[in-house]
Amino acid sequence: MKYLYLLCLVFTGSASAQTITFNGCHNLFENQNFIFNKTGVDAFNKNIYMTTPINDQQPCGGLGNCEFKIQWNNALTRWEFLGDEGNGTFTTPFLIYYNATGNNSLSIPPGNNAGTWIENTSITNGQCSGNLTPGNSIMTGDVQGPALGIQEISKDKIQIFPNPVSDFIQVSGISEGQIIQIYNIDGRLIKSEIFAPKVNVSQLTPGVYILKITTKAFNSLEFKFVKK
């Protein structure tokens, strides 16, 4: 990977429990998705994710080709987003973002609203416009969600009902939804799909969940609900 590729990055998530999708940093990348696939587990039981294919064939916003990796750094107790040095080996990769969320017991990395993904400006020269947030990026799939104690964004006229729910949740008051996701109490992604005002939750086990809606403007809305 050429150094220029490393000036910013993009994450996105998918419905699969083994992939992460990232989209962001549009100042340097085109508005496109990078798909990370789980490639293994390290010695500390942390998952390892890499963009595919790792063959210098992933287009990167007209800047060339990009190859990325998300993995745990046990020495520094943090998750890292890395760019390959150019050989597809990640022997001496470039550190693009890092996240020391504190919730490090899980085998999956934090999303863009769990802890803080910090831009490593010594590599990016600040071209990614700062740390990752739900407002400037989308990061979904096999990632940690927000803790239940986090302050929720104001919903205004948006409502979900019924709550508690047995089979289907209805969402009203939103017309620009893009992605809808459901996380369990441990922050694990359970369900991810294209936004629809009716969500089937009949297969969930009883308990407390978070329903997260990401809008087309990259705003994030979160709602707690109880599955009966």
Automatic annotation (TrEMBL):
Residues 1-17 form the signal peptide. The lineage of its organism: Bacteria, Pseudomonadati, Bacteroidota, Flavobacteriia, Flavobacteriales. The keyword Cell membrane does not apply. This is Por secretion system C-terminal sorting domain-containing protein. It holds the Pfam family Por_Secre_tail. Residues 160-218 form the Secretion system C-terminal sorting domain. InterPro entries: Secre_tail (IPR026444). It comes from Chryseobacterium contaminans. NCBIfam families: Por_Secre_tail (TIGR04183). Keywords: Signal.
